[in-house]
Amino acid sequence: MQQKTPTVIITGAGLGGLTFYHALIKNKDKKEFNVKIFERESDPQERWQGYHIGINKLGAQSLINCLPSSVASNLQKAMPNPIPDLEHHGIQLVDHTGSLLLKPPYKPAKDVYGVANAPGFSAIITYRNRLRDVLLENVPVQWGKKCIGYEETDDGVWVLFEDGSREFCDILVGADGINSPVRKQKIPELQINDFGITQIVGDIVVPKNLLDRLIKIIGNSLFQKSIGLNGEVVFIFYRMIPIEQEQEQKDKCEPHYRMTLIFVYPTKLDDDVKNDETKVNDNDPASVINHVKHMIREFRPECELTNIILELWDLAPKTISDPKKYPFKTYDPVRRRKMQDIDPLSVNGWTSSRVTLLGDAAHAMSPVLGLGANNAIRDAEVLSQALLNYSPENYISCIKEYENEMLKRTSADVLKARSYTLNQSLPIGNKLY
């Protein structure tokens, strides 16, 4: 009697879930699955995916291994080849005035394949929103389907959705983010850790003259960190590739560039800063931006780098739906967000079953080392390889093989990123580096 094709359901169409979908489809000649992917958002544009992330050697290798050639051929749309002699895709650490503190060794690469095969550390600053778009190509995501839980039976898993519907599968993969309902049911004792640190992210577009001023002070490393005296840190990601401007604006203004601007600080500083000008309201981007600027003026010396950072924050949209006509698009309203993580080995409750987790659902990480997305993509490769040996009799051993590797790898990275994040938030003089 011919066995039916086993069904795998993925909840969450983020970078990890989509990469996993592609890996299963790519390997269907070795092991065929009926793969379904569900996403709580109503459509691909509902939530802004962000301007930039760093894809390192680990992530690049797994992307290339997981993606069919038809999808991999489009990766350059999301990660344009580095511009020789102009872009340095490594990290640089400077102080609050722009003086160099640290510039770790970095192996240049000509493209994402070079990053994957580099003998030392290598990375490429990637357009996160475009990477998600590339991964969505030819994927039949079922939108507007929020998973709220599941029911395990002897024969499989019923996946339950908020709209009252349910779907049956042999394997459920929760790739549904840090607030994963799948994780909360599978391992309720695995809690989110709050750092006591706040981050504020702005995706902006920068005119060439302002970017030139910044580069003159801190150089052409595309990932910059400026460490303040009170534990506050400014992160800057960008590419030296002009954005495509609206047709009516072409030749009327100077080139503009994508930039991700992040301000990170110990949350307690909110109480230390006396700001009578405005009360911070996270539903009012203008008040959040004013708060950031007030803190920068309060804690940083008056200098050219400080002035540039203030000008950069002025470029962030001040309203949820800014009526001003820009020659480019920006999306996410600026607001304060808690920095959090999840150490998957902080509990002993992992029992392998038909239900497993992938990406932030299992091991959300501090973003400061850029390890989160890369580990989610690696999860996709490891799990897809483990499932090549799937059978109705040995599915537990396949999931266990994946979870053993994933837990060890990601717990180490969670703790490494946590230690680094907590250390950088200390006032100068208390830091360990």
UniProtKB/TrEMBL annotation:
Gene3D superfamilies named in the record: FAD/NAD(P)-binding domain
A GO molecular function held by the record: FAD binding
SUPFAM superfamilies hit by this protein: FAD/NAD(P)-binding domain
Pfam families xref list: FAD_binding_3
Keywords associated with the record: FAD, Flavoprotein, Monooxygenase, Oxidoreductase
InterPro entries: FAD-bd (IPR002938), FAD/NAD-bd_sf (IPR036188)
Name of this chain's protein: FAD-binding domain-containing protein
Organismal lineage: Eukaryota, Fungi, Fungi incertae sedis, Mucoromycota, Glomeromycotina
